[in-house]
Amino acid sequence: MSAPRGGLVETPDASGAFPNLSREQIAQLRSYGRRRRVQAGEVLIQEGEQTRDLFVILAGKVAVVQGYGTPEERLIRIHGPGRFLDELSLLTGQPSFVTSVACEPGEVLAVPVSALREVVAHNPRLGDLILQAFLIRRELLIGLGAGFRIVGSRFSPETRRLREFAARNRLPHRWIDLEEDPAAEALLQQMGVAPEETPVVIWRKQVLRNPSNAELARAIGLPVPEPSEDLCDLVVVGAGPAGLAAAVYGASEGLGTVVLDAVATGGQAGTSSRIENYLGFPTGISGAELAERAVIQAAKFGAAIRVPAEVTQLGKRDGHYAIGLNNGPEICTRTVVIATGARYRKLDVPQLEDFEGKSVYYAATLMEAQFCQEQPVAIVGGGNSAGQATLYLAQHASRVRLLIRDGDLGKNMSRYLVDQIARHPRVEVLRYTEVRELLGDDGQLTGVIVEDNRTGERRTLAATLLFVFIGAQPCTSWLGGNLAVDERGFLLTGPEAVRPKAERNTDHRPDLLETSWPGVLAVGDVRSGSIKRVASAVGEGAMAVRLVHEHLARVEDHIDVLAAGGRSPGPGAEEANHA
Ligand SMILES: Cc1cc2nc3c(=O)[nH]c(=O)nc-3n(C[C@H](O)[C@H](O)[C@H](O)COP(=O)(O)OP(=O)(O)OC[C@H]3O[C@@H](n4cnc5c(N)ncnc54)[C@H](O)[C@@H]3O)c2cc1C
Fold this sequence. Notes:
Number of strands: 28
Number of domains: 4
Structural class: alpha/beta
Bound molecules: flavin-adenine dinucleotide
Helix content: 25-40%
CATH architecture of the largest domain: 3-Layer(bba) Sandwich
Number of helices: 15
Distance between the termini: 72 Å
Strand content: 15-25%
CATH class of the largest domain: Alpha Beta
C-alpha cells in the first residue's frame, strides 16, 4: 500500500469547492457526529464504497487519490483541518469515485448521511455551503476524468451510447479512444479483451464487455429497480423537470413515490447549458445543476429515483396499475404521473450533437435572439413555429435564411406569416433545400452545406446559428395506444380526454391533468396543449400531486361505501364508482 506521506501541503481552494468550515459550523456538526482518531495510511473512504459518513477533518491531513494502490495511482489533492471530504455521490447514494486516505495521524468527525440530510434540510447556510461544494466537486471530478474508463472507438455507436449515458448522468469517467490513444490497445491486451469485444468499461477490478446502460449502472452501484412487494402510492414515469417536481411534491406530502427514467434525470432541460428564464435564478442555471438539486430534494423527502429504468408498459392489475420495465421487475401503484416529455425531431446530419446547445437550437426565445445579434442565421422548417422564429430572429440577425424541403411556403404556414416573410428585407427563403453538413470547430458553427433536393447541387451558406423546427414527437409509444391522444400523439387530459362512447366503460370525467384512465395523470411536454417550458413543466408536476390526493381520497371514500362488498381500491374501484 502506498500511503501518501505526511508533510504534504494542503491544496489551495481555487474553485470554491473546498471551503474551510468555521469553528461554529464544526460545532453545529459535532452534535450530529462522533469524533475519532485516525492512523497514517488509514483509508477513510474507499473508491467504490457506497455507504459512508461525511468526514470533517479536525486534525492531520487527508489525501484524495484516484486508483489508490494500483499502478495508475494519482494524487488529486490534500485536505487539512476544517475541510470536509466527499462529493455529490454521498447524498445521491452513488459510490465514491476516489479514495480518501489519512497522510498522518489525526482526528476526524464522522457524520452519518441521515444526519447530513437533516443538516441540509434544517440549517440552510451550512447545508447550502456543503451542497454547493459537492456540486462543484462533481464538476471537478468529471473534468479530471476520475471514475470508470470507457475504452472504445469514436466510430462505434455502442461507445457513443455509453458515453452519452455517462455524460447525461454526470458520472465521472474517462473515455479512451481506440482510434487515437496509443495506450488503448496495450490496455485491452493487458485485460485480455479482443478489439471486437469493445467498447469495454473498466471500473476497479471489473471489465464489462459492451455492457447495457443498466449493466453499467449496476456495476458502479447506482440504484436500479429491485423487486418489491410493496404497492406504491405514486409512480412518476420520466425524470425531467415535470417528473422531478411531481417527485418532490409527492414525497414531501407523504406519498410513497418512485421515479423511473430511461436515460437520466433532467430530461431535455438537463441538456441545456444555461436556462436563463427559470424563476429565481437571475444569472441562469445549467440544466444539469437544476436536475442535481431537484434529485437531492426529492431524495431528502424519501422519493426513490431509479435510472436507467425504461418503462415499456402500463396496465391494470387487481384494481391497481402495473408498470412494466424493460430491465426490471413490474411495479404496482395506485396512481401514475406520466412525464415522459417529447423529443424534438433532429436533423439527420453528422456531428449534430457537437453543435447542439452551442450553435444549434430548438427554440427561439429572447435568450437565443441575443446570440443572433448581427449574425447570419439559418432556420429549418416550414411550419408556423419556423415562421414565427424567422420573423423574430430577423429583428436581431444580420441575415436569416429559411430552408424548406418543398416549393410552397404556404403549404404548412399561416398566410400572415408567409406574407411578412416575403416582405422582410433580411429574410431569404430557400425552397427545395435540405441541410447535409455542419461546418465549424468546437461546436461553433461557421456555415452549413445545403443541397437542392431536385438537382443534388450543393452549396455552402454562412451561418453561425442554426434553428431547427421540424416538430416534436411525444414519448408515448410505450402506452400501446391505451390512453387518449391528440392527432400528433400527445396525451389528452381533462375534459378532452374522455374516450369515444364505444370504448367507454365508465362515466369518469378526468380532472384537469388526468388522462382517460382515472388516477393516471400527464404533465409537461408529453401533454397535449402544454407550454414547452421548464417552468410550466415544473408547475404541472406540482399540480398533479394535488390531483393524485383527490383521486386517492375519492377511491378511499368509495371503499368505505363498498366496504361490505370488499372491492379493491384503485382504477377498478373508481370506474365502478362512476358507473
Ligand atoms: C437544448 C434545450 C434547451 C432548452 N432550454 C430551455 C430554456 O432555457 N427554458 C425553458 O423554459 N425551456 C427550455 N427547454 C424546454 C424544456 O427543457 C422542456 O420544456 C422541459 O424539459 C419539459 O420537461 P418534461 O419533464 O415535461 O419532459 P422532458 O424534459 O422531455 O423529460 C422527459 C423524461 O422522460 C424520460 N422518458 C421518456 N420515455 C420514457 C420511458 N418510456 N420510460 C422512462 N422514462 C422515459 C426521458 O428520458 C426524459 O428524461 C429546452 C429544451 C432543450 C432541448
